[in-house]
Specification:
Length: 161
């Protein structure tokens, strides 16, 4: 249950932060909140293994997308972009994690975070603004991957305790 709450809370907090603080919130959301969301999704992927995994993952991603829409008080374009990029990143993360079955858990989590961070960093500005700044996208991916390394290490360390 903690991972579900972390997943949804991180997504909501990211939208609230951007709504309240605008562009200034992006480094914090990219380095801390989005990687927490993606890492929690990977933890749930392992906990929910089995026949219901695709249904549970789809429900989780759909819930996050809906919450992104509900907590985004900005322009309609930003609300749509937030929901769409949340869904795309969640699906990319799920697919990448599922494909890396022979890798270690640390490798799977960080590789799926890399793939979904790239998807999120490209999707949001494209949907919201109709264009992607390469410099901003690279910076966002780097921050999300770095944050993901921290969250993955923390989750795996806590699991050993």
């Amino acid at each position: 249950m903690f991972a579900v709450v972390a997943y949804l809370a991180a997504a909501c907090a990211a939208n609230v932060a951007v709504t309240l603080f605008g562009y200034a919130a992006l480094p914090f959301t990219a380095a801390a909140l989005i990687p927490l969301d993606l890492t929690a999704r990977d933890v749930l992927h392992d906990r929910w293994h089995g026949n219901l995994l695709p249904l549970r993952m789809a429900a989780l991603v759909a819930s996050g997308s809906l919450m992104a829409w509900l907590f985004c008080n900005g322009s309609p374009a930003v609300c749509v972009a937030s929901s769409v990029s949340f869904a795309v990143a969640g699906l990319v993360d799920t697919a990448a994690y599922a494909l890396l079955t022979n890798a270690t858990k640390w490798q799977r989590m960080n590789a799926s975070n890399l793939a979904s961070s790239a998807a999120d960093s490209l999707c949001f500005p494209l949907v919201a603004f109709g264009a992607v700044s390469p410099a901003l996208a690279v910076t966002q991916v780097a921050l999300k991957v770095a944050g993901g390394l921290v969250w993955v290490s923390l989750f795996l360390w806590l699991k050993k305790k």
